Each structure stands twice: as structure tokens, then as C-alpha cells.
Amino acid sequence: MSTTRPVALVTGASSGIGKASALALSEAGFTVVGSTRDTSRATPLDGVTMVDLDVASDASVAAAVQQGVERFGRIDVLVNNAGIGLTGAAEENSIAQAQGVFDINVFGVMRMTNAVLPHMRAQRSGRIINLSSIFGLIPAPYLAAYAASKHAVEGYSESLDHEVREYGVRVLLIEPGGTNTGFEANSPRPDSPLPVYESQRRIADQVLATAVRDGDAPATVASVIVAAATDSKPKSRYTTGPMAGRISILRRIAPSRIFYTQIRKYNRLAN
To answer: Mind telling me which Gene3D superfamilies this protein's record contains (predicted)?
Structure first.
């Protein structure tokens, strides 16, 4: 079966930003393939074909992309949304924990990209939209491994974009700020907690919980993803929500001393 509508593949589409994005893309006229690790446990979404996909598995990625191409004939937009967090001081996170974050947040993006690029190059068009974070631009104390993964996504995406433009493919970044999802509750805790960090870790958890609770709705991010998928002249990066926009500007123009003072103040760290 093929379709005359453009086809979008969204990873991590069972909840949060992924779910909102899959529904928004469907409403915008896309045929949408949404993925989750276990479709038997996912709530059906109107206008979205759900497939099983584990972005940490080469075989699963290849099978899901092939399934989408065989069913609909093409993939025009890939939204790399699947991701996980990790809280705690950097010293409290084991290398195994950090590797788990990178396997999904970074290598998952690379696996998905490598799987769809041959199809996009062959059709001489396509957009790969990677979910970064405002923490891909700024420090994130007590979220160091997560921030490192998003910095990696930024560098990978910008570099790849220049490699594939000549084939009609663009690689774009979405940089949300705090978003009202299950991020904080679903982020693993450190597996090697140390008493020296306990007090500040508790404060960091409170700061993160507040940012998530008071953050933008997933639909706000989804609307920006639709814009990135449809803009005739797409931007390389899109911030979502007013807070993320202000932080992005300050990161570029504020002197380092002033900027880092504000980072420490926001995170309630001693100067």
C-alpha cells in the first residue's frame, strides 16, 4: 500500500512529546507511523499506525523502517523523539548508566538516521528532525550525562545536515525547555549515590520537578515540530516556548561570567 500523503515516522510516540507530535503531524496532512517498544501496551492513536521499535536495537530499527517503507512506499520525515533522562551528580552515575542514556539518546538517533537516509537520498528529499533540548546548549548540573547526550545530538545533527543537503535532505534540531511530561518521574536515579551530594541532589530534583510541572505543554513542542517538517525554508534549529527562546539568546550574547552566575542561581548552587 502506498499513499500520496507525505509519510512521517515518529519514535517514542506512545506518550508526551512523541504522542502529541504524531497526532499533530496527522492533523497537518501526514500519514504517520508512530513507534513504541511494545504496541500491545500502547493506547491507539487516531490517524497513527503504531509499530514496535526499540531504538537501542539495530535489528528492531531496520525492521521498523522497512515496515514503514513497504507499507506506505516512502518516509519523508523522521522525528527522533525517543529518549531518556538520568538524574544525580555525574560522579554518582556509573558508566553503565551513562552508556544506557547514550545508547538511546545518541546512538538511537544515529541508528534511525542511518536506516532512513538511503530511502531519503533515493527520493532526493526528506527531513530528519532530532529532539535535542535547551540542555544541549547550556550546562545542566545534576543532569550531566543527559546534557552530554543532547550536546552530542547537536553536534551530530549540525554536521550531518551539511553532508546530506546536496541530496535534498535536511537535518533539523528541536530544542524544548521544560515540558510538562513524565520526564522527571521516569528518569533513572543514580546507581552510586554519595552522601556528599545528597543535599544538593535533593535541591536539583526539586528544581527539575518544578521545571517539568510548570513547563510547556507537549502540544507546544509538537506545533514546532510540524513547522520544522513543513517550512519551505527550514531553520537549522527551533527552540520551543518563550523560556527556551530566552535562554538560547542569552547563551549567545551574555558574557560567560554573567551567564554562569545565572545558571548557578537558577539551580540554587553556592557561588
So the answer is: NAD(P)-binding Rossmann-like Domain (3.40.50.720)
